[in-house]
Every structure is written in C-alpha cells, then in structure tokens.
Amino acid sequence: MTIYTKTGDKGTTSLFDNKRVSKDDIRVESYGTVDELGTFMGLAKNYVDDEEMYDLIQNIQNKLFTVATNLATEDSTKVKHHIVEEDIDYLEKIIDLYMGRLNNPTGFIVPGSGKKSAHLHVARTVCRRAERRIITLSKVADIDPLVIKYVNRLSDALYSMARYSEEKEVPVRY
Which listed residue, 55, 75, 118, 149, has the most CB atoms within 10 A of its CB? Predict the structure, then answer.
C-alpha cells in the first residue's frame, strides 16, 4: 500500500467529506495544528514518569482525533463523533486534580524547570495556537462550540499538568 496519492501535488488536499481545499486553508491550518498538538503531547507523555498522567495524556490524544475530525469536515452531517460536555468535565477534573495538588498556586513562573514540564508547556502553547486557528475558522464557518470550549479547557489542563511537573518553581522576576 502506498501512502502517496499525488492529488496534493498542486497545493490542495481533501477534507474528510472529500471537498478539495488549498493546503493553506484556515480549516486545514486548524486541524493541522490540532495534529501538531497531539504529536507534542505524544512526546511529552514519554517524559512523564507518572502512570496516571501518562494515561490522561493518552486519553486526551485520542479525543483530539474527534476534535480534528470535526474541524476537517465541512459538512457537519458527515461527522460521526462529537465533543460532549462530559469531555469538558473530564478536562476540568484534571485541572482541579493537579492544581489542587499544588494548593492552587498563583503568579507566573518561568516554564520548564525540567524535561517533563518543558514538553508539557510546549504542548500547552501549541494548544493555544490551535485555539486561535479554530477561532479564526469560526469566523467563516460553523464550528461546534463544544470543540472551541474543549480546546480552551485543554490548554488549562496542560498548564496544570505542566505546573505540577515542574522540578522547581522559578518565579518570574519583573
């Protein structure tokens, strides 16, 4: 089986519902950034020595395929899987868990005092970029509001895991 189709050689690609668009289309940019996020999360989980956090990250990676499918499909009637409120509740429980373990800290820190936290912070910033791309897409296309809410909450979950994983907290000095 070959993975190349040659159909993208002229700068277009197919969405999940087979509509052809330019490879720099904001829709492609948004689900491509979600793909990048999932990949960075895959990298981050391999530096995590906590099995619970590893499993949480892997579960989120799987859910990102639902996010990407929603973004990569213009015809919403062809989307088989959707983000639901329970998915957002799951992220909120992660946030509460890790921030609670830190006694709900305040103030800014310099991110990445160790490899675990550094990789999680990279994933967090890619998540924020994905959210910006999705917001841009939402200005020209109908996007499920729960997809936007999920990605927004995900960046907070990644922050809480990253902050918990810091080897030492280096406060920002202004």
Answer: 118
